[in-house]
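Course assignment 3, question 2. Fill in each field.
Student: A.L.
Task: Predict the tertiary structure for the chain below.
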Amino acid sequence: MSRLHRPKAGFWIRLWVALLYPIDSLLFRIRWRDLDRVPAPDEGGVIIAVNHVSPVDTILMARAVWQSGRVPRFMIKAGVFSWPIVGRMMRGSGQIPVYRGTADATQSLREAVTALERGEAVVIYPEGTTTKDPAGWPMQAKTGIARLVLLAPDIPVVPMGQWGAHQMGGFSLRRLGRRRVSQLSVGQPLDLSRHRGKEGSQTTLREITDEIMSAVRDEVAALRGEPAPSEFFKPTRSYVDKR
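Answer field:
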């Protein structure tokens, strides 16, 4: 279900909404559930963790978060911000660039914490890129989301599992009108406040990250109607974004 009210937003967010709603409706049949599990705006900041199955699924997740009653602030790879027009829209709408695998990633975390302190909804793909798991399951995530949790331990984390956007493939005129089903399941918010004050050791970071991704994976398993693998696929390639 969706909340009946519309979030308060500025020009750039409204422009995104006006552009993406028709695109989503043209390309996908949307089947989403439990959007009301996303805390309402008057409940403060929230971290939304979602698996990444396709380069195009961000337009669907943006709509889902908007329909939950929140304005999405995506942590998204920095290269997108250099694109003509789209980059300007990203900056204008307050999205957060992430320089993966670099020292500048710390700045991204600071920006995310500031947004959370303002009571905003920060959306993160913990895997850092589309999943490389051969069967499409969420793969082992980077620990950036755990670092964010340690910086904002009292902020709830909402796990979201999605499935279906990857079936569309690339854009082409032949695919117009052949809509794919996009499914989304929202889990109960995770309270990770017990980690308040902990040092960011690799053990702690991995524990937090895997707890979040296990919750995300459970939602994906519910959508797929099959048991999830017991271990996360480990990608062999690292991704680095340069300024």
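Instructor remarks: The mean pLDDT is 90. Residues 168 and 180 are 6 Å apart (CA to CA).
Grade: pending
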